[in-house]
Amino acid sequence: MEALLGLFFPAVTGIMAGSNRSASLKDTQRSIPIGTLAAIGSTTILYLVSVFMFGAVATRKELLTNRLLTATVAWPDPAVVQIGVILSTLGAALQSLTGAPRLLAAIANDDILPVLNYFKTPDGGEPHQATLFTSLICAACVIIGSLDVISPVITMFFLLCYGGVNLSCFLLDLLDAPSWRPRWKFHHWSFSLAGALLCLVIMFLISWTFTITSLVLASLIYYYVSIRGKAGDWGDGFKSAYFQLALRSLRSLGGNQVHPKNWYPIPLIFCKPWGILPPDVPCHPKLADFANCMRKKGRGMSIFVSILEGNYRDKAEEARQASRLLTKYIDYKNCEGVSEVIIAKNISQGFRGIVQTMGLANLKPNIVCMRYPEIWREGSANNIPDSFVSIINDCAIANKAVVIVKGLDEWPNEYQKQYGTIDLYWIVRDGGLMLLLSQLLRARDSFENCKIQVFCIAEEDMEAEELKADVKKFLYDLRMQAEVIVVTMKSWEAHRQDSEAEMAVREDAMDAFSKSRKRIAAHAEYLRSSNVHKNVQYNEQQVDKFLYTTLKLNNIILRYSRMAAVVLVSLPPPPPQHPSYFYMEYVDLLVDGIPRLLMVRGYTRDVITIFT
């Protein structure tokens, strides 16, 4: 029965003949349904009539044993059967030779399979190369010389095609795709599902070995197309299923706060915030490498954002081109992410709009990553301090974490092995973000040989051993391995009372301290003399306190972590009453001389859990 089915099935495989020649039809929507249904009806009648006629002229034994029965009972002469066989064979062959080459050429023209580019055909031309290739395949099948071998193989490919068509119709109808509007009014998704299952069952009935081989081959072709294919989005049924699944997943996530166990970093990569790259470079070459370091085993998504300053009407086309260029950069760096380019009057307003509207529900970006603006002192970068402080304050209001990268030019890619330590200077509570980032860094191939060290800054009158034990217990509960080091530092009040410490500071770094204080005083005087900032308050004692704290912390980092692979330190919040220029001086004094540094500012919620 199975062998008979495999032999007979190719006789009823002309149902797609009209679709294969759709480009040659004047009205495809009318001609294909009428022609297909008429062909099915007429052939079905002929086959049924043949069954009754053969049953009327021969016994069951003759039908089973006499393979030349048709020629024996033919009227008026047995030659009629031979002529009919020849005409039927030529008709089927011509049908295949006219439909298959055009289908092959259409696939090649759509760039679905790059290996088929040789068979491309210009519009209106004849597919000569595809016809020759199809003829060679037909000749190879004839040379085999056994219909029993060829028929099951051909049947498998036809059944795969019909099963795929039925599956696509089933998905489109079940998912209620708005563009799915079949003209056949009596269509239902259950018919398509039954057709797809019936094709699969028939394949296994014919030969389960051929079925497994065909399914594996089809899967490999699909994988090859998805990886190497250059075709656009053709709106297949799976894309519609993915879309509905994404919508359902998004609704299930809702807008409630995600539990720390399910928290994933979704970094917002600020590509060109300071205008230090050429116009044709969409993003810093190493920024995508850093974004990849924030994903564990490739899981996660990054949003690359760039802001064009100007008017929307004037810059719309430039923004689209920049978005395409940024997408190519993301694909080239093999980074899982999307690109967004917006237009705003200035960077601060643009970022404020991004931080409020980017993302949906719990798929909004939760970490803002950007490069530290080393050029902020240059004359052409007068607006950088205000933009920098504005972005940090906006992130705090929107409850977004901030990661600022210094030394991005030296950031390693996945092939550059790093040795040494990953040092954390954990000063303020950040929800565990700094600890989590250190673990994500160490999970990358480039940092897998590094050890993690946690430095706790304590005042001299604190119990260092007790603090060290508490931090070790905390890391143990987090299931994180790291060495804990407690470093003592004099407070500002103690420093003012201790003349020896003051002299030590002067001997170490008083030059940088004095230059920063002079620049701040000069800038304060400039602001007072201008018409915009007449009421600026300059408290020399508060300025000295911030400068001393950042300078002292910088000295500690250089003393203990000069050879570290990367240093992570808590980003100090901008003082509310201090101008942005003052804050840039504080931060600049903190990062001075450190080759590779991440300044991290977490948010009020936890991103790690201590459940053991």
Secondary-structure map with pairings?
Layout: H1 2-8, H2 17-20, H3 28-57, H4 60-65, H5 69-73, H6 79-109, H7 128-144, H8 147-174, H9 189-206, H10 208-228, H11 237-253, E1 267-270, H12 287-292, E2 302-309, H13 312-332, E3 337-344, H14 347-357, E4 367-371, H15 384-397, E5 401-406, E6 421-426, H16 433-442, E7 451-458, H17 464-477, E8 483-488, H18 492-497, H19 499-529, H20 540-560, E9 566-570, H21 580-591, E10 597-601
Parallel strand pairs: 1-2, 1-4, 2-3, 4-5, 6-7, 6-9, 7-8, 9-10
Antiparallel strand pairs: 5-10
Helix pairs in contact: 1-8, 6-7, 8-9, 8-10, 8-11, 9-10, 14-15, 15-21, 19-20, 19-21, 20-21
Features:
single chain; 612 residues; 10-stranded mixed sheet
Characterise this structure.
About 55% of the residues lie in helices and about 10% in strands. A 10-stranded mixed β-sheet has the order 3-2-1-4-5-10-9-6-7-8, sandwiched between helices. It is built from 21 helices and 10 strands. With about 600 residues, the protein is α/β, with parallel strands linked by helices. Helix 1 (about 1-10) crosses helix 8, helix 8 (about 145-175) packs parallel to helix 11 (about 235-255) and helix 19 packs across helix 20. It is elongated, with a radius of gyration of 36 Å.
